[in-house]
Amino acid sequence: LLRVTAWILRYLNNCKPKPRLSQYLTSDEIEKARDYWILVAQKQCIPAVIKALETIMPLPAKSKIARFNSFLQENHLRLGGRLQFAPVTSEEKHPLLLDGSHHFVQLLIRHTHVRLHQLGVRTVLSELRSNYWIRRGREAIKRVIHRCLPCRLYKATRGTQIEAPLPADRVTPCIPFSITGIDFAVPLYARNCKSLDTTHIELFAC
């Protein structure tokens, strides 16, 4: 999604009377595509909070975000929190606020889950919270992991089929080597003094 969006943004940029870009996508273009989708997700899921902050109005009384002292930074909604003096990055102090029901957020969760080699809910949530604060994040991560095919295969229960009876040759008493299986190995090369000789391995199984 981010790469497709980055190509579209480059096309729109090349339509303007500016220096045209024709090389491979850069990390800055991928970052702009990510910022675009974060802005879209925030405006679609929490428009009332963004509108109140843009007009310098108090947040709605029923809003659960009011206690986080939210603010806008470059049109992105971030949480204030109480980590202003913590020795961490600015993104960790003021994470971006997202809603777990948005499709972009679900893709972000799935990407993080795969990047962490299909780890569990706690690890994925901890990794995401270094940059994002997802509302109902634990529930959203559980839904994404529940739809993860490798995780479902790993957690699948063993089959309980009834095994077929053993053949008569394996359960009938008989003298040794009355029924014998023979197996040959591929030609091997063994050194005899200075010359190489071809040898074979013959295996008899009773």
Automatic annotation (TrEMBL):
Domain annotation Integrase zinc-binding: ranges: 104-156
InterPro entries registered for this protein in UniProt: Integrase_H2C2
Superkingdom, taxonomy of origin: Eukaryota
Protein name (record): Integrase zinc-binding domain-containing protein
Organism: Araneus ventricosus (Orbweaver spider)
